[in-house]
Protein: Choline dehydrogenase
Organism: Devosia geojensis
Amino acid sequence: MIDQNADVVIVGSGPTGSAYARIIRRDWPEARILMVEAGPQILPEIGGHLDNVLDLDKRAELEILAQGGDRSPRLSISKEEWEARRAGGFDASLLRRSGLFIANEGDDGDGLFAGFSAANVGGMGTKWSTGTPTPSQAERVPFIAADELDAALRVAEGLLGTHKDPRGPDPIAAAMRERLGAAFNPGRSPDRFVQPMPMAATPGPNGPRWHGTDVILGDLVKEPDTSFRILAETTCRRINHDNGRATGVVLARTGEDATWTLSAGTVIVACDALHTPQLLHASGIRPAALGRYINDHYIVSQIAELDTDVPMRAMSWIPATNELPFSVTIAPASLHTMPKSSELGGQPIGMGVFCPADIDEKNHVAFDDAKLDWRGLPAISIRWTQSEGDRERLEWAKQTALKVAEIIGRPAPGFATFVQPVGSSLHYQGTVRMGERDDGTSVCDRNSRVWGFDNLYVAGNGVIPTVTATNPTLYSVALATFGARQVAREGRQRQAA
């Protein structure tokens, strides 16, 4: 029997929803917390990372389950598509990645925007890259004091279990970073030097163990159901609210029509940058900025050739700065499924230059109330247009990719520099963005509380209001800690009263 009320209901079980649960439990030990997840639990470890499953066939099966209601497998990339990719053409492989879809399918020009739907216990925490770099100055929320955000980032590193170099020591990577540092470090502060990519992982003799939301939740999953519970394969259809206060949620078993209502002291919507605004829209909560300002960085991809007989294992990072707005990730490339030039003799090194995109109110998520998705919510589409500034920065980013390749060794023969469709990084944001004041350009305040509500919060990359060129999970978890502390503080006050 499911209790019909909870102190806190969290819709979504990904990294930020789990961070809310963990911080609320730390600061409010008596809170009754219920987490709602539309997808299934796919691993014995609640929220575990799929990359820890070493059987690749089994992992592929779990990848499909992780898509929730969208379980149609993607086709393998064809030889013709690989050849197009090598020539710098459209990266068709993106359409084959499990769960990836082109949100505005049919627009094959500059308005292409890739999106992703993950629905399983742990959300994207079961599938993310585990990269946890810190945001640059340009990426930081300007109305949150630097010392406050730095402290929140340290808390987020602890929640995620960040390790500064989980594949180190790696002398080949270290030597490469030294060469790159000679070119990029002058004028930078030490924290923005070329460095190993920090990752949410634990080193081990057989390679790192990758962290999912199992690490964030910790001992919460051992608590009795009356204290903490995850309702898997349960869809939130609506947030009930009255006069600026969320009163509860309407739930349904995923794929079923029958619903029930659960009362809540506080509601936190922590789906993702597409589905969080979707649920607010379906609930009649529609601030002017809801779903607008959708943004993501581009990825300029380049394969370089490193002349070495000793394999490089570690991932490296060139952080973005005010002077160079690109974050560059560098890691060994696996070409076992790709056509390979006979001229390629050294180790192939993959590179992604993360290039920021201009923020525009007109770029938005649209909802079709007449067409429902598998969750029973209004169907999503995306309207997005590339700016002239985007095109100029992309040319700069391509030159940066070639410069880095020359320092590493040389651009790999047979592989062109190419730009992935915006959104392909799955780091899209801005659709429930935070703001300094309620002036119609934001959805929530600096603590992620929805404007006009006492007890309704949003979480995830969607709250980030700035341009980014960095993996945002650490950043969005840090922002979640502000809201979580406020929820716990106000909950204790209500309890005392």
Remarks:
- Residues 5-496 form a domain with the FAD/NAD(P)-binding domain fold (CATH 3.50.50.60).
